[in-house]
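sorry to bug you again but im stuck and you know this stuff better than me. what follows is a protein written twice so to speak, once as letters and once as structure tokens for the fold. id like you to explain what the token line says about the fold, in plain words if possible. anything you notice is useful, everything is just below.
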Amino acid sequence: MDSNISEFCSDGLHEECGVFGIYDLDGGDVASTIYYGLFALQHRGQESCGIAVSDTEGPRKVLASKGMGLVNEVFDAEKLEKLKGNIGVGHVRYSTAGASNTENIQPLVLNYVKGTLMLAHNGNLVNAPELRKELEHTGAIFQTTIDTEVIAYHIARERLQAKTVEQAVKNAMKKLKGAYSLVISSPRKLIGARDPFGFRPLVIGKRDNCYLLASETCALDAVGAEFIRDVKPGEIVMLDKNGIVSDESLCTVKPARCIFEYIYFARPDSYVDGVSVYNSRIMAGKILAQMHPASADIVVGVPDSGNAAAMGFALQAGIPYGTAFVKNSYVGRTFIKPKQSARESSVQIKLNVLREVVKGKRVVMVDDSIVRGTTSGRIVKMLKDAGASEVHVRISSPPFLYPCYFGTDVPSCDQLIAHNNTVEQICKLIGADSLGYLDGERLPELIEGDDGYCDACFSGNYPVKPPKEDIRGEYEK
């Protein structure tokens, strides 16, 4: 896909955000566990990261460390050693639009009359501007441009009347519209909450006498924790010394989980709402082979999320699967994109073709999506320059036709190649010999027949009424 080749190209989607929380009931320090959890969620955001911790038995002072860059760029052993505390939250971020700066790095730490709150958020609110104006008119002063701060303010205000933090979270949730998976720490509780549609994933885990919350199960695996279950869409869970307390009173609508989690965002070794992401991608490839067969010598995937779909295509079609691309995994946030005048392509710096694999062969190239099309065109050209006699492109998602407002930076319609071009025209524009997309009607097969998903970026059927104006550049997450 355009996005997973180079986050520095203008052509492509980006991951959203990843959240992680832990409460060690035995009082052990948790910062290093949060670090490794965030490391496992790095694919969900590479712009910035942060960790905030507190001690439930001590003075309850919040210690936080944040920075721009990858997890291993921001944190070292010395920084982690200073973060003493047995409860905490962490966050990796990619802003879906707008400025990326230090003020917007999460987790947010809020000091208010009832104590402190540490909050990390994955998703986007569609009513953030209205909620923000409402708060500003009552004297609120904002330090960031992210809608996460809007959520934090509302929870803090509701807490003045509510008996518990979880009740305050519930009251605040009634005002929020859009996507949000939240991990919140109060002085003695770890709280997880998921919007009623369940746009973004959130899971519960346990390791010894620790409770954990994370965006994906792969983060639990990374720290040796046992997966307990998914947080249900609309559910609020409170984790403390008494165990898990659940409130499902806001689980009132049909779920609309983001289908693109299975196609691209989530790591292939994760399970999202009980479904294997790897199996979803294998199935997508099999469907592509059924619907858009090709006479070819080899099937290859564009790293990383195209690989499993390519394997599924190869299995279904009976065509050998091969590795045609070598990916440079060491290009971090500080990578300097070559100037236009330079010969170096930012795609080729991150990806190179194994000539021996494709030379003289008819190649099926499987990728997860095409956004603007420029990067897909470059990859097709790279394959042909390496000697491929034909390149048949297969995409494991339907065409992107509409923007996303729920935590993914699918751009406006005029920037989407599929919005203004037919499949035949796109095929010609990217230089492919043929092009086939996944049929939207077969998306339920990716999640074992479940129809509780959101495909608005493909269909235009938004579960929540989108804003009249595209406000993602002003209130981003």
